[in-house]
Design goal:
It is a single chain. It is built from three helices and no strands. By secondary structure, it is mostly helical. The protein has one domain. Helix 2 packs antiparallel against helix 3. This is ATP synthase subunit b. It is a single-pass membrane protein. It is found in: Cell inner membrane; Cell membrane. Keywords: ATP synthesis, Cell membrane, CF(0), Coiled coil, Hydrogen ion transport, Ion transport, Membrane, Transmembrane, Transmembrane helix, Transport.
Length: about 160
């Protein structure tokens, strides 16, 4: 019987598989594949854990950002309230200052009016005394006239002051 090359190739292949089985290559391949599957599973678990950590960190940073935004808004609101209070206080101080200055000016004006009135009274009294002295000295001559003029001048001075 003559065998062709195909038969020998088949026998060679069968012997090759038997040799591989005898040497335990299938077990080594199984272990290698199991190890590779285990490594891939570990990598997937690590990736999942890292993704969860990243999600937690992201959530934490989002919360911190929201808190910072709320705090910033609170600071801005407080600054606005303080600015309004300072503006009100400045307005009140300015109004008080204007009121005091107006009062001082009015007091000075009243004092100047009073002083002017006193000066006018004093001047009119001096003019009245001088006129009365001239009139009385012209009508009354001698010692009796002089005594009457002196007493009248003293009396007028006492009444005017």
């Amino acid at each position: 019987m003559e065998y062709d090359a195909t038969f020998y190739a088949l026998v060679g292949l069968i012997l090759f598989f038997v040799l591989l089985g005898y040497l335990g290559v299938h077990k080594m391949l199984g272990k290698a594949l199991d190890g590779r599957a285990s490594a891939i599973a570990k990598e997937l678990d690590e990736a999942k854990r890292l993704r969860e950590e990243a999600g937690a960190v992201l959530a934490e940073y989002k919360k911190k950002a929201r808190d910072a935004e709320v705090e910033a808004q609170t600071i801005v609101d407080q600054a606005r309230r303080e600015a309004a209070a300072l503006a009100d206080e400045a307005k009140t101080r300015m109004e008080d200052y204007v009121t005091r200055r107006t009062k001082m000016a009015e007091d000075k004006i009243a004092q100047a009016e009073h002083q002017a009135i006193q000066e006018v009274k004093a001047l009119s009294a001096d003019i009245s005394i001088a006129a009365a002295e001239k009139i009385l000295s012209a009508r009354l001559k001698g010692q009796a006239g002089s005594d009457l003029v002196a007493s009248s001048i003293a009396d007028v001075k006492n009444r005017l002051n």
